[in-house]
Amino acid sequence: MQKVVAVLGGGIGGLSACHHLSKSPNVSKIVLLEKSGRCGGWLSSIRRDDGAVFEQGPRGVRPAGAVGRNTLNMVSELGLESEILPVTKDHVASKNRFLYVKGQLHKMPSGPGGVIRTIPPFSRPIIQSVLKEVLIRKGTEEDESVHAFVSRRMGSELADIAIDSLCRGVFAGDSRQLSVRSCFPPLYEAERSRGSIVLGMLMGSGGGPKVVPSDLAKRASKESWTQWSLKRGMQAFPEALEDMLKRRERVELHHHAKVKSLNMNGGGWEIKLDDGISLKADHVISTLPASELASVLPPAAQHLSEQLRSIASVNVAVVNLEYEGFILPFTGFGHLVPSSEDPGLLGVVYDSVPFPQHNRSGGLTTRLTVMMGGAWFEQTFGHPDSVTKQTLLDRATQAVTSHLGVNSQPVWSCVALHKNCIPQYHLGHWKRLEKMRQYISNHNLPLTLAGASYDGVSVNDVIFSGRTAAEGLIGKT
């Protein structure tokens, strides 16, 4: 029986789902519904006429693990190998990452020396925490906050400074509220299977998906890439995917197609759009944010809607800045700021260091991106609808001045406020997912949940969730 599948949301997850669905002869039609005028979601690049590229969303992708290989395999399928800009392990952007603590920048410990010696802002060598960690008894809780987990196993100093900053850098979130089980599954699994993070990391905790590497993925591993981007910015990835899908006759892509309601109709769905058009589908893959899906489900699925609404998300302000000349006091990837230092300021990325290819042609410049807000947005800036771009710009340039000692003003800037852009996997997230998927199964709903709200917020995770959703319908491709 051939199916009509509707994919809700044209971000990278929705595009990935369509890509994998289109490989199967058992799907007669794939309809992608995207509410905005473009696909790609948060993958959004500004390309200036002088060759400069600025990322408003994710700026680089990690090649590591099965999900990293899966993304690189897709890059190959799209014929984008020649566009790739790799950053290797020995690159200064990989080696130098900083923390801004007590008004000063400190290089994060790296390499054996960094682990054995006491390096500020830490008051003792990290090796002490590591050796002690192996002896600590296994936790008994089903879930724990990231902060509590790391405090218990590695001590409060690492939790307060390094892990707090890391959670702000990855999730724009609060380590005291985020779930270790859902945000950092390898840490949780390492403790469960080996009784220790360190032993789990050394011995591996097994499991995980299997992805056969393409030649590109093999090259990434051989050359020790830590991240990569594309010559025309990360947006080139969803653009290439969309172009490929447009050439496939069973795929229909609709922009400006906002879903108003979903209703069950004789074993399938009736999908009403904002403009009054209605479509029928045998199955729906939703890559919409959880709360958006909740608002279009039928009243009968109220229990599912309530669970979906309980997945929170945060607002992040992204300020791209360009300065004349090379203005950094030292080079590296960038610096993160723990919440105890400045709750509203998450970190600064030194974009020109990992990707100088994105600088404008002619004349030396420095591109920086300042990330602000996240879980602290409202307490710092007030309601997202009432904050002005000037306020955000001033706050960002002031941070560059005070953290990096830069006295000149930027020659170009762009302020973007991304509302509800990063889902927050708070304590018990795994339980909510279990309940939602159980509900869908018990009620025989032809619905699959995919996208950043559920099983990982990174670009790789979201792409893989699209693949998994498609393969759940059509089998492995």
Automatic annotation (TrEMBL):
User: Which keywords does the record carry?
Assistant: FAD, Flavoprotein, Heme biosynthesis, Membrane, Mitochondrion, Mitochondrion inner membrane, Oxidoreductase, Porphyrin biosynthesis
Cofactor field: FAD
**Localization per Swiss-Prot or TrEMBL:** Mitochondrion inner membrane
Stored Pfam families: Amino_oxidase (PF01593)
Q: Which reaction does it catalyse?
A: protoporphyrinogen IX + 3 O2 = protoporphyrin IX + 3 H2O2
**What is the E.C. number?**
1.3.3.4
GO CC terms: mitochondrial inner membrane; mitochondrial intermembrane space
GO biological process assignments: heme B biosynthetic process; protoporphyrinogen IX biosynthetic process
Co-factor binding details: Binds 1 FAD per subunit.
State the signal peptide span.
none
- List the Gene Ontology MF annotations in alphabetical order: oxygen-dependent protoporphyrinogen oxidase activity
- Domain named Amine oxidase is located at 12-473
Which Gene3D superfamilies does the protein's record reference?
FAD/NAD(P)-binding domain
Give the pathway listed in the UniProt entry for this protein: Porphyrin-containing compound metabolism; protoporphyrin-IX biosynthesis; protoporphyrin-IX from protoporphyrinogen-IX: step 1/1
Its membrane topology, per UniProt?
A: Peripheral membrane protein
Query: Which protein family is named in the record?
Result: Belongs to the protoporphyrinogen/coproporphyrinogen oxidase family. Protoporphyrinogen oxidase subfamily.
The protein's role, per its UniProt record: Catalyzes the 6-electron oxidation of protoporphyrinogen-IX to form protoporphyrin-IX.
User: How does this protein assemble?
Assistant: Monomer. Homodimer.
Which protein is depicted? Answer: Protoporphyrinogen oxidase
Which gene name belongs to this protein?
A: ppox
